[in-house]
Amino acid sequence: MMKPVCWIVGIMIPFLLAACEEKRPLAGGGEPGSLTFKVMNRTGTETVASPSVGQGVRLYVADRRPEMNDCPLYCPQEWRYDLTTGGGAVTYTLSDMLPQWYKMAFICAPQLDGVFPSIEDHDFTHLYIDYSPVLQRKVQQPAEDLAVYRQVMDRWLKAGETALTEDVVLSRLTGRLVIDMGILKDQFEHPVEKIEVRLSDILSRLYLRDEAQG
């Protein structure tokens, strides 16, 4: 039985972030606190935490700035964290966070140039994932994970709160197209030399906020 497969995102292989700690003061007022996250992926019905090949992980933090009417969610460059630091057990800590409301977007995506948001615009609502570098790939390695995972959440931090730990499960946003043609000799009168699948109007960009309003 032959099952030609046209991969849109690739084999779903989980990932695990390496342990790391970030200490950067964030805007607000009052006694600072900290938040620690353990990050995992959900692939189908499974929640997994294992290294994946070719994946990178980013965290984007934003807050509201009443004085900035044209930027409802402020996300400067220094609040965009690269969590891709190797294998091993995972925790990631944001320290010295002042008490206020935050929006956080965890993104796991292929570690290719141009995929993760890179624009200098500080408006969180303008940040997007660009999947076109993945769609342009001609060859996928067997162990590569070309899927995109995401979790967007809102959190309040109270004054003096420390050692707060939370599991963050990222859901897979992309899928794959599988074409099962059964036994080819039963489907075609003559030997098949080539099977070509053409896909049109494929979406290649996704805003971090898309379908993430809770």
Mean pLDDT: 76
Whole-angstrom Rg: 20 Å
User: What's the number of helices?
Assistant: 2
Rough shape? elongated
Order of helices and strands: EEEEEEEEEHEEEHE
What is the helix fraction of residues, given as a range?
Answer: under 10%
- In the predicted model, the low-confidence regions spanning at least 5 consecutive residues are 1-28
Would you count the extended β strands for me? Answer: 13
Strand content: 25-35%
Termini gap: 44 Å
Biggest sheet, in brief? 9 strands, mixed
Query: Which structural class fits the helix and strand makeup?
Result: mainly beta
Structure report:
The termini are far apart. By secondary structure, the protein is mainly β. The protein is elongated. It contains 2 helices and 13 strands; from the N terminus they run βββββββββαβββαβ. Strands 2, 3, 4, 5, 6, 7, 8, 10 and 11 form a 9-stranded mixed β-sheet that branches. A two-stranded antiparallel sheet has the order 1-12. It has helices at 132-135, 184-187, and strands at 5-6, 20-23, 33-43, 46-48, 55-62, 80-82, 92-97, 101-110, 128-130, 149-156, 164-172, 177-178, 205-207.
